[in-house]
Design brief:
The complex is a heterodimer of chains A (about 250) and B (about 180). In chain A, a hairpin with an 8-residue loop joins strand 5 and strand 6. Chain A is α+β, with helices and mostly antiparallel strands and about 250 residues long. In chain A, helix 2 runs parallel beside helix 4 and helix 7 crosses helix 8. Chain A has 8 helices and 6 strands; from the N terminus they run H-E-E-H-H-H-H-E-H-H-E-H-E-E. The two termini of chain A are about 40 Å apart. Chain A has 2 domains: about 120 residues, no CATH class; about 100 residues, Arc Repressor Mutant, subunit A (Orthogonal Bundle). Chain B is about 50% helix and about 15% strand. The longest helix of chain B has 27 residues. The chains are: A alpha+beta (about 250), B alpha+beta (about 180).
Amino acid sequence: MTGEITAELERDPVYVVRTPAFDGPIELLLSLAQRAEVDLKAISLASLTDDYLRAIEQQHPPLDRLAAFLVIGARLVQLKAAGLMPDATAGEEEDLQAWEDAIKGRLDEYKRFKELAESLMRRHASGRFTFAGLLEPDVIPQARVQVSLDALASAFRQVLDRLPPPGQVTVEMEHVSLGEKLEELRGMLARQAQLNFSAIFRHARTRLEAVVTFLALLELIRIGEARVVQASAFAEIMVHGQVRTETE
Amino acid sequence: MSSTIDGATQVRDTTGLAAALEAVLFTLNRAVTVLELQDILQSPLPDIEAAAATLTGTLTGRGLFLQRHQDQLQLVTDPAQADVVRRVLRPEYPSRLSPAAYETLAIIAYRQPLTRARIEEIRGVNCEAVLESLEEKGLIEETGRLDAPGTPRLFGTTMKFLQILGLSSLNELPPLPQSGSTSS
């Protein structure tokens, strides 16, 4: 067992055993017992368990820690029982042998993987990474715009037609921010995985607001947080939200 | 005479397809499955495989690198150029992992696909937290469900796993040490 792993165990052991024969994390006890480096006959598993029961009453450890203790405890009992039965019958001896072989095989397998883990760690630490390129921001993958630009433009025109015409020019400054519309669209797409194109403009009261909303939609498509799809020629255009992935 | 022409056409086709493959992988700039490539390049699987092999050969000694993870292909920078690339972009790659994480990754890399129970059997400890963290870092993913009671999740490595190790494919992993030959 390397110092590193021991240190890791000591930071967060399932349970720290305090007996005259062994003092340390229970994981370490199991690991040593499996390699016959500690004599389980010298340790009372019953009083160890009693101590643990008292500890749970005081500390209320989470369920996964209790489960981990049970698994480790069961293995210790199994190991100890195997050690206490020297006079087992021939058949049982064979079973025991098979069981010992299985344990040895498992330990051996674990050791091989530990060695590989170290070689992976060295390889990772060497920093010989490979990188994907940066996506040119002007390029939008086909998959995000599965609708003809004409269809998208005419759908937007319909939205504008429903809104009051510009009429006379009002000088009063209308305040519609692209940032706010972006957040609004993100919120809508987070609540609903797909939306009708027209639903995006539900709250738009003026043409300016509709235009800014449309710009916000195009921006979400550009940065990969939305895609627009039209299943067939005259079907409703659907807007899908999507999680931005690094690889796209 | 005609056989010479056919032969020449064949050669040009594989080279041409390799060039088309390179162009598509460059523009898509992500992992692309061979299934998608058959559709994009309008070519059957064996031709795609041949083109990928040709492209790997063409790229030897160049700054780019063809990476293959299971049925996905991706054009990335050569691991030998990692330092210079890091001077121009600052990709968020997971830095050093815990010893438990490398152990779990090694088990998954060599034994995939496999369940959490199988990983825990080998490591002898609960692996829930470490699996969760590896999945969050994008180094492993669910590749399916085991057809057994409870249909447990099966785990496998990802393209990103190859990318942090600079491997061209899983075949490039060091060989699994022989049983009993270890010392440490």
